[in-house]
Amino acid sequence: MLIVAALLILGPFHPSGIHPSSWLTNPFPDVLPGIVPWAGALGGVCISLVGVAGHARASDWRPEAYGYWHLTRSVLGAFFGSVSVLIVSLLLQNVKQIDTTGDHFTDSGKAVLAVIAFVVGFREETFRSLIVRVVDVILGPNSPDAEARYNLVPRAVSFEDAKVGRPSKHVIHLVNGGKKSVTLHRSAVTTHGKGLDASLAGDSVTLADGETAPIVLTWKPTEVGHLTGSVSVRVAGTVITAAVNGDAT
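Below the sequence we write its predicted structure tokens.
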């Protein structure tokens, strides 16, 4: 109860992002929806419950030693989840969206950020890995990873409730995190999986440092069943692959 009260007192953790104390309001309303800290805190609570339930009957379980750690997981989850969402939002701010609805997040956008915060709150090791990667990119410009860092976002795509004979679409993005411009040709994008296809906006796309290119995945199932496939992109001598799966009815 004390932890819940603390979250309610802190303005940035209020669900609506608004608090009577103006100096405690959410300082980043455009990039940090109010649901994000709560999702991170929920992830921390869930992993705490898993830990308590898993070790409660163990012979080496010592509540006085581990109790405070599990009590703080919700607060740590809220902070780690919020910072992780800020990092992701700032690093991916140049992602080209097909549909825009203004300056505010859509409901689906808030859901994505909430999922990220929940995952980081549930598994704080992810936050440490994210910090290491950010430091390598910002403070290590001469390292090989910083010179040529390309990525597909997301790395896993799921076609749910696809219908036989009807095309279903998903959009992924190739992120150019390197130090040089790169040109992506249509022939560099290949797919593996029956009825799965991928396309660019044109025959070729040139990406400057920090820019991204949308890749539209289309799956038109010919029969009822499960799809297990992939999409691969060859860029600057590097092949990046994202997993694709789906179910057709």
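DSSP finds six helices and ten strands in the chain.
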